[in-house]
Amino acid sequence: MKIDLKVNAQFDLDGSIKPTSIVWEDGRVFEIDRILDAHMAPAMTAGGLGMRYICRIQGRTVKLFNDEGRWFMET
Question: Rounded to the nearest 10 degrees, how much is the dihedral formed by the CA atoms of 30, 35, 38, 42?
Answer without folding.
Answer: -40
